[in-house]
Write a structure and sequence with these properties.
Elements (H helix, E strand, L loop, with lengths): L11 E3 L11 E5 L4 H6 L10 H9 L8 H10 L2 E5 L1 E5 L14 E2 L2 H7 L5 E5 L1 H10 L1 H5 L7 E5 L11 H8 L21 E3 L2
Parallel strand pairs: 2-3, 2-6, 6-7, 7-8
Antiparallel strand pairs: 1-4, 4-5
Length: 199
């Protein structure tokens, strides 16, 4: 999926291309990459972000010891796709709270889901990703003739979300395994606006 070229701005944060293939059944969405990830050119590059350790525990794979392409391939082999809600925004620093609302451009999820029809579960990595999706992406999806899918918000893996420890976040994220290929597709008739929260 080719993303359009955006103008350069000192505080411009822009997403990476999605990590996805035709076998994907699950999509994990962040809001937009933080400064550490933008500098590294890879998802969840901040050393204290718990995304890769959580996925390592879920998939029983030593992801932190792998190079980045291997990590991404391990997700794909498990039927998991990865992307962000926002294509671009202006944001000084890495905090979602500092995103300038008038600068937000959302990704084209209608086009994405047309190319990924097997995805029936979407998991938000934190509240900001869910909120931006509801406001900036869901209205477009409601106008399109696409299969329904289930949405669930999970605790953010960001180091800024310190209200839960690693084990508590891991327990919540275990629901992702329920959507792995071969598992039963439950509640496939759920409406697009029905978003649950894992606690």
């Amino acid at each position: 999926m080719v993303l359009p070229v955006l103008p350069v701005h000192a505080d411009l944060a822009r997403c990476f291309a999605p990590i996805a293939n035709s076998a994907a059944r699950v999509l994990i969405l962040g809001s937009v990459p933080g400064v550490a990830s933008l500098k590294a050119g890879r998802y969840y590059a901040h050393p204290r972000n718990q995304f890769w350790p959580i996925m390592a525990a879920l998939l029983d794979a030593d992801l932190p010891a792998m190079d980045y392409p291997q990590r991404c391939q391990t997700l794909l082999d498990a039927g998991i796709a990865l992307w962000d809600v926002l294509r671009s925004c202006r944001r000084p620093g890495s905090l979602d709270a500092d995103i300038a609302p008038d600068s937000i451009i959302a990704n084209d999820f209608g086009e994405f889901f047309r190319h990924q029809p097997g995805i029936d579960r979407v998991y938000f990595n934190g509240a900001a990703a869910q909120q931006h999706f509801m406001r900036h992406a869901l209205p477009q999806l409601r106008t399109l003739d696409l299969p329904a899918r289930q949405y669930l918000r999970l605790p953010s893996t960001s180091p800024a979300h310190a209200a839960l420890d690693f084990q508590a976040k891991l327990r919540a994220w275990r629901v992702v395994l329920d959507s792995a290929p071969g598992q039963t597709r439950a509640n496939s008739s759920r409406r697009e606006a029905n978003i649950e929260v894992a606690r």
